[in-house]
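Design job #97: recover the sequence.
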C-alpha cells in the first residue's frame, strides 16, 4: 500500500482470524489504512480477530488511534478481538491514546441543602489548600532568590549588567507612554469628580487637596503597579514559560549556569530600580492632568494650584508613595518569575499561568498597600 508498505494481511487460523499489520502506520498513510480497515465489516458476531502489530515499522498517534478505533468498532458488533506483539517502543503511545479516550467522570449535582453545603465547604477547603501550597512555593522561591543574591554580592562580577540595563529599558522606558497617559487621565477624572462634589459646599478649591494627597500617597504608585503587573509581570511569565517549554532553562542548567542568577535577578533588580522612577513620573503626569482640569473647569490658575497643593501635602506625603514602589516591584517580579518556572511543557500552561501571575500580583500589591496604610496610620505618617 504505497512506498511505505503500510497495510495488513488477513489469515484464518483455528481460533479465528489474524490481522498481520505491516509498514508505517502514520498520518500520511491513514486514509488508505482507514478504507482498508473499514472492510472488516464482514466479520460477524461471535468471531474473534487478533491484531498482530509485530510487523509495524513506524507508528504515530493517528496510527495508534486507528487500531483503537478498529477494536472499539469490532466490539460494538460483538466481534471479540485482542492486540498482540506490540513493539515495546510503541507501547507508551498506545497508553496515551487509551487515556485520551477515557470518559470524564460525571459529578452528580447535590440533591439537598446539606449536600450543597458539603460541596461548597469542600470547594472552599480545596481552594484554601491550593492557596496555601502556592504561598509556600512562592516563599520558597523568594528564599532561593535571597540565597542567590547573597552569593552574587560576594562576587559582584557574576551579576549580568547588560541584562540588567536591558530589563530596566524594557520595564521602565517602555512603560512611560502607557503610564503617563493613564496617570494624566486619572488626574483629570479625579479632579473633575472631586470638584463636582465639592461645588455643593462652595469648596471647589479643595479638589486640589484631594488630588495631591490621593495621587501622591496612594493612586500614583498603585496605578503604576497595576500597569506594570499587567505589562511586565505577564511578560516575565510568558518569557520564562516559553523558555521552559523549549527546554532552554534545562540547557542552562546543563551548561552549569544558575537560571535564577541568569534570568531572575536582572528582571527583579531592574524592576525594583525603575519602579520609583515610574511612580514619580505617574505622580507628575496625574498632577499635570489635574492642573489642566482645574484651570479649565474651576478657573484655578497654575500659581494658585501650586500654592494650594503645597499647603495640602506634608513632608511625608510624597515619600509614602515612593517608599511603596520597590516592594510592589519586588512582588510583581517575584510572582511573574515564579509562575514562569512553574510552566509545564504545553502552550496552554503558558497562557494559564500568565493570567494567574497577573491576578496574583495585583492581589498581593493591594494587600501590601493595605498593610502599608495600617503601618503609616500607626506611625502617624
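Job complete. Output follows.
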Amino acid at each position: 500500500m504505497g512506498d511505505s508498505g503500510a497495510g495488513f494481511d488477513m489469515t484464518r487460523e483455528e481460533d479465528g482470524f489474524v490481522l498481520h499489520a505491516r509498514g508505517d502506520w502514520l498520518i500520511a498513510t491513514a486514509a488508505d489504512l482507514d478504507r482498508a480497515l473499514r472492510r472488516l465489516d464482514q466479520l460477524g458476531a461471535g468471531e474473534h480477530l487478533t491484531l498482530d502489530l509485530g510487523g509495524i515499522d513506524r507508528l504515530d498517534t493517528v496510527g495508534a488511534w486507528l487500531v483503537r478505533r478498529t477494536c472499539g468498532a469490532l466490539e460494538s458488533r460483538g466481534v471479540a478481538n485482542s492486540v498482540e506483539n506490540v513493539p515495546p517502543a510503541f507501547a507508551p503511545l498506545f497508553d496515551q491514546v487509551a487515556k485520551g479516550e477515557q470518559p470524564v467522570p460525571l459529578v452528580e449535582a447535590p440533591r439537598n441543602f446539606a449536600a450543597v453545603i458539603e460541596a461548597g465547604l469542600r470547594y472552599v477547603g480545596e481552594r484554601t489548600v491550593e492557596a496555601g501550597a502556592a504561598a509556600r512555593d512562592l516563599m520558597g522561591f523568594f528564599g532561593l532568590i535571597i540565597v542567590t543574591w547573597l552569593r552574587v554580592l560576594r562576587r559582584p562580577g557574576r551579576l549580568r549588567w547588560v541584562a540588567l540595563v536591558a530589563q530596566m529599558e524594557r520595564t521602565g522606558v517602555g512603560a512611560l507612554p502607557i503610564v503617563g497617559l493613564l496617570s494624566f487621565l486619572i488626574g483629570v477624572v479625579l479632579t473633575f469628580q472631586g470638584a463636582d462634589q465639592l461645588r455643593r459646599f462652595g469648596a471647589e478649591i479643595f479638589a486640589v487637596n484631594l488630588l495631591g494627597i490621593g495621587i501622591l500617597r496612594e493612586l500614583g504608585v498603585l496605578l503604576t503597579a497595576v500597569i506594570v503587573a499587567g505589562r511586565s509581570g505577564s511578560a516575565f511569565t510568558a518569557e520564562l514559560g516559553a523558555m521552559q517549554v523549549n527546554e532552554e532553562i534545562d540547557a542552562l542548567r546543563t551548561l552549569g549556569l544558575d537560571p535564577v542568577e541568569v534570568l531572575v535577578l536582572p528582571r527583579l533588580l531592574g524592576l525594583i530600580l525603575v519602579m520609583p522612577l515610574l511612580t514619580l513620573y505617574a505622580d507628575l503626569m496625574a498632577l499635570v492632568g489635574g492642573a489642566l482640569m482645574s484651570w479649565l473647569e474651576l478657573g484655578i490658575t497654575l500659581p494658585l494650584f501650586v500654592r494650594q497643593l503645597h499647603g495640602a501635602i506634608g513632608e511625608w506625603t510624597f515619600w509614602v508613595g515612593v517608599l511603596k514602589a520597590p516592594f510592589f516591584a519586588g512582588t510583581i517580579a517575584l510572582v511573574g518569575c515564579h509562575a514562569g518556572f512553574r510552566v509545564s511543557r504545553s502552550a496552554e500552561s503558558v497562557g494559564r499561568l500568565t493570567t494567574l501571575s497577573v491576578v496574583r500580583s495585583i492581589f498581593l500589591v493591594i494587600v501590601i498597600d493595605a498593610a502599608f496604610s495600617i503601618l503609616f496610620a500607626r506611625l502617624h505618617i
